[in-house]
User: Which sequence fits this backbone?
């Protein structure tokens, strides 16, 4: 059901939030992200005040590192929340009551990085509210998929690649929709849940992206891809029907048969073992062979099936969310089998991207191109003037972080006495203009001085009435 446990599901803030690289900084979508943050969305706290408030502090319409912004990853990011409070008559597994799980889901995509253009990333932040227990032990996370690559849907084949922590789907011939080069789809566990091991040599990592950084968890490990399991379906029911028995579903998620016994690669229906010893194959990873090179445990059944690509066991401790990141990736080659190779290459790039904390997820603006490098004070215009004149000045870059600098613009009379302060504020690099209204001053010569950082400049102006 939509929303969190402490928010009514009819609340209008329970919706999908979107931010895009094309959104104007500090615009409506950035402002609406405030509601997303209240629901648990991440954000960049540029001014380090502990809360999200996307304010353009210097009013120049450009985001700077000292200003807040949404957790915009790559070109588009979507956020929503939901919980396990669905009424029993609508539940997939009808004999399981809610246990207080909240899921904060962030989906992000890239259209500008070609290697990522066929990938959808999803981050699940899974929280145990403590409704049933402060610690839910031996939890399993599964990517549940129903592969249908074109038509007919029963011509799809499945497999898994343990080296890439992925289950995948493919065709082995022509397809009515795609012709001879049907794509292949990989379902990848990029960031598994964490679990404390008590071993001081262990450490787990949670990546948030280039801007938000990453978190290191000592004495813990990231749990990895632990099983891949099909569930065959003959309409209208499954062979191993998990909708009526939670124990069957649990066994399937653990990579077992419905009764809890191991698969037997030597005897399993709709498969074959090619140029390998079936006795030595790990039964938890169904169809872990390589269809490209025709070796290992391969799926052969052209039937309707579902897939479960699952992590190892972990714990959900009350109000200590687990962040799991998965990816759906499509590859397409010259034919159906070479599409597997194309998808694998893309998934390898995913792991390179993830291991480096998503370096392409955020590109810092080139402020050297945006902002002036030099300080400058212009001659007022008009000059002479009566009764007002405009003064333009430029604040240059003060440091590598492009932080605002203290700036003062003061007007003096011919005797050097200060008569008014026009500017006394922090100013980001940029060009500004201010109007000096001298209607209350006498005719004569005046001086105005700009001071900022190490820069000092003074110019003369004449007031004639």
Assistant:
């Amino acid at each position: 059901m939509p929303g969190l446990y402490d928010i009514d599901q009819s609340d209008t803030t329970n919706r999908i939030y979107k931010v895009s690289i094309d959104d104007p900084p500090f615009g409506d979508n950035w402002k609406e992200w405030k509601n997303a943050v209240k629901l648990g969305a991440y954000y960049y706290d540029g001014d380090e005040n502990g809360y999200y408030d996307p304010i353009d502090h210097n009013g120049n319409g450009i985001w700077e590192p000292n200003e807040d912004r949404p957790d915009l990853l790559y070109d588009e990011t979507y956020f929503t929340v939901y919980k396990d409070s669905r009424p029993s008559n609508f539940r997939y597994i009808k004999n399981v009551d809610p246990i207080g799980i909240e899921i904060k889901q962030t989906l992000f995509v890239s259209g500008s990085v070609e290697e990522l253009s066929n990938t959808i990333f999803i981050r699940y932040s899974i929280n145990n509210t403590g409704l049933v227990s402060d610690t839910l032990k031996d939890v399993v996370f599964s990517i549940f998929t129903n592969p249908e690559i074109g038509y007919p849907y029963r011509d799809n084949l499945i497999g898994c690649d343990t080296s890439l922590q992925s289950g995948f789907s493919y065709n082995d011939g022509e397809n009515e929709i795609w012709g001879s080069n049907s794509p292949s789809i990989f379902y990848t566990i990029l960031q598994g849940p964490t679990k404390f091991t008590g071993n001081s040599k262990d450490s787990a990592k949670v990546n948030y992206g280039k801007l938000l950084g990453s978190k290191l968890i000592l004495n813990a490990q990231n749990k990895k891809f632990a099983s891949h399991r099909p569930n065959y379906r003959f309409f209208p029911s499954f062979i191993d029907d998990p909708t009526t028995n939670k124990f069957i579903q649990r066994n399937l998620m653990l990579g077992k048969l419905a009764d809890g016994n191991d698969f037997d690669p030597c005897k399993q229906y709709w498969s074959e073992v090619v140029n390998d010893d079936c006795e030595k194959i790990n039964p938890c990873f169904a169809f872990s062979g390589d269809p490209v090179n025709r070796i290992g445990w391969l799926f052969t059944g052209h039937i309707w099936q579902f897939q479960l690509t699952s992590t190892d066991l972990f714990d959900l401790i009350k109000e200590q969310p687990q962040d799991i990141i998965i990816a759906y990736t499509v590859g397409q080659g010259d034919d159906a089998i070479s599409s597997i190779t194309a998808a694998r290459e893309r998934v390898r790039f995913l792991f390179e991207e993830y291991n480096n904390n998503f370096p392409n997820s955020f590109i810092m603006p080139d402020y050297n191109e945006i902002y002036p490098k030099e300080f400058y004070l212009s001659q007022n215009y008009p000059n002479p003037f009566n009764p007002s004149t405009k003064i333009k000045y430029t604040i240059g870059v003060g440091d590598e972080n492009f932080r605002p600098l203290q700036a003062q613009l003061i007007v003096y009379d011919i005797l050097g006495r200060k008569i008014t302060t026009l500017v006394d504020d922090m100013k980001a690099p940029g060009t500004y203009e201010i109007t000096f209204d001298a209607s209350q001053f006498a005719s004569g010569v005046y001086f105005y001085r700009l001071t900022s950082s190490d820069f000092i400049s003074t110019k003369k102006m004449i007031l004639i009435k």
Remarks:
- The longest strand covers residues 119-128.
- The chain has two domains: 17-361, 367-463.
- Helices lie at 28-38, 246-253, 338-355, 367-370.
